[in-house]
Design brief:
The chain has six helices and seven strands. The chain is mainly alpha-helical and 170 residues long. The longest helix is centred in the middle third of the chain and has 27 residues. The relative contact order is 0.11.
Length: 170
Amino acid sequence: MSLNGDARLITHGAAAAAAASPTHAPLTHLHHFVPPTLPTRACSYPTYIEERDSTLQSLERRATKLASALDSLDGVACSPTHGSMYVFPSVALPTAAVDAAAKAGKAADAFYCLAMLDETGIVVVPGSGFGQKEGTFHFRATILPPEDDMDRVIVAMTKFHASFVERYAA
């Protein structure tokens, strides 16, 4: 392969991909440039294991905390997540909220999610974008806020949900 018409720049495989777009090396070839830390390759392996395990344990704590908090809300059901960065709670929306969403030309769960964004600054994704069963409402929330912020996020989501349900109570 000749790059930029210069016959001296002939490369193959991962190096060719990186050379073709030097600032956008494909992630599929990243392991060629940055091999994983292995016990035989680096004295930093124990640090790598400690950091990896700490990160995975933190993600598990955040996932458990958020799923449990959402599941405790009236009208919300949330199963624990394992190996994912998201929780997918279902939410029972008041009929008045579903009607207000229709009047606004929005899916009911999108209406809920946009209200949460407006009132709390928290971004969640409506389940209607994932092909949910007709008549059910869900949203997707990430477990990635820093662990120190998770309580604040949960409090804000809890207050929002109670306020939303009260606002649209029949």
